[in-house]
Design goal:
mainly alpha
Length: about 160
């Protein structure tokens, strides 16, 4: 079960990262929303954005690039002092903590999106449930125990148990 939990955790982060990079990239390339099936700019009426460029950049970086980076870090386990500085769970490896941050970032993203768009579609429901699943998998005892700091990390060294 231990390895399956880790694999699911990595897969969830990777899927989120890949899909967010695709969606965010499409919005960056075509801020009008045409690449995503003709997303109407009218849904941004109640938002501070004139088009989808800024939301696309945020989506691409925060929910696309970062989850992929975290998935790699969970496998390679590098020591990164800057990342460790913002780790609220000092007894846990920083990338595990950041996977929790990403799940909450996804929840916040969906809440803000539904507020500005003033509606909820199947995609928002899917990713809200997805964020909850990400949290549950990360908090499973086997997954959590795998990333507990029961080992010594030296700067510029890979951290392995």
């Amino acid at each position: 079960m231990k390895k399956e939990g880790q694999k699911i955790h990595h897969a969830l982060l990777s899927f989120l990262g890949i899909t967010a990079m695709i969606g965010g990239g499409a919005l960056i390339i075509s801020p009008s929303g045409k690449l995503l099936g003709g997303l109407p700019l009218s849904i941004l009426e109640n938002s501070p954005f004139p088009d989808f460029l800024i939301p696309g950049i945020i989506l691409f970086v925060v929910l696309g690039f970062l989850p992929l980076l975290i998935a790699v870090a969970l496998i390679k386990r590098p020591f990164i002092a800057f990342a460790e500085h913002f780790n609220l769970f000092k007894d846990m490896y920083w990338a595990w903590t950041y996977s929790i941050y990403i799940a909450f970032a996804l929840i916040i993203w969906i809440q803000v999106e539904t507020f500005f768009v003033q509606g909820v579609g199947w995609l928002q429901m899917f990713y809200m449930l997805y964020a909850i699943v990400m949290l549950i998998v990360a908090l499973l005892p086997h997954t959590r125990n795998n990333y507990a700091k029961t080992f010594t990390c030296q700067p510029n060294k890979n951290c392995k148990q």
